[in-house]
Amino acid sequence: MKLSDYIDHTLLKPTATERDIKTLCDEAVQHHFKAVCVNGCYVKIAAAHLKHSKTMVAAVVGFPLGAMATVAKVAEAKNCLQDGANEIDMVLNVGLLKSGLNAAVEKDISEVKKAIGTHTLKVILETCYLTDEEITLASTLAVNAGADYVKTSTGFGTGNATLEAVKLMKKAVNGKAKIKASGGIRDQKTALEYLNLGVHRIGTSSGVAIVTKNPETNEHTY
Fold first, then answer.
1. pLDDT (tens digit, 9 = 90+) per residue, 179-201?
2. How far is residue 83's CA from residue 182's CA, in Å, rounded to a whole number?
3. What are the catalytic residues (predicted)?
4. Which of 16, 75, 86, 179 is the most exposed place for a label (fewest CB within 10 A)?
């Protein structure tokens, strides 16, 4: 597989316009990225723009805090699929995890997975807020709940992806789920470090810069 096959080309900043999303999609098609990752309000536009391409649409759910009610996440996920999303990237409820409410965390994820069926579910752990033990626990709960991927970060927290967090996630899922590294990955060298660890997807707003090795193309930010 080529490097571009691993990239979810991402634009989630609150000021993103319709034109920005269409540009993101055009870049994704040009560089053969695996998917674009957008907020729910832009799923329909992205899906229409990518209709005749192989690039998928990933939509974020419960973003960026993960602290809304499960029923809201489920409704958001269903709406994104109706608008044309292929994949859902949902944010784990960090507060529930830190409260020791493991069953509630698992149910939050499993309800979204049940709602989207065979569509891919990536669970964002927001590892910057978690201890090593909590990263391991969150990864395990996500797998138990049927997640297809565990993902490091939203890009909106106090920290981004780290190699150490990915190593913990990889050990915890033990091949039962894939791993997506996201947050702060802006150049090819860094992206390759994660791929060499066994990461299956890279979430980045710098996809063009990564595949072209041209930092001047780092136009998008989370």
1. 999 999 999 999 999 999 999 99
2. 24
3. 89 (proton donor/acceptor), 151 (schiff-base intermediate with acetaldehyde), 180 (proton donor/acceptor)
4. 75
Return the CATH superfamily for domain 3-217: Aldolase class I (3.20.20.70)
- The active-site residue, picked from 34, 113, 122, 151, is 151
**In the chain, where are the structural domains located?**
3-217
2 annotated active-site = no
- In eight-state DSSP terms, residue 147 is -
Asked if 151 is an active-site residue, the reply is yes
Give yes or no for residue 42 having a pLDDT over 50. yes
* Token pair listed for 43: 């799923």
Q: Which of 34, 113, 178, 180 is catalytic?
A: 180
Active-site residue identified among 89, 108, 122, 148: 89
Q: What is the pLDDT of residues 52-108, one digit of tens each?
A: 999 999 999 999 999 999 999 999 999 999 999 999 999 999 999 999 999 999 999
Q: Which pTM does this prediction carry?
A: 0.95
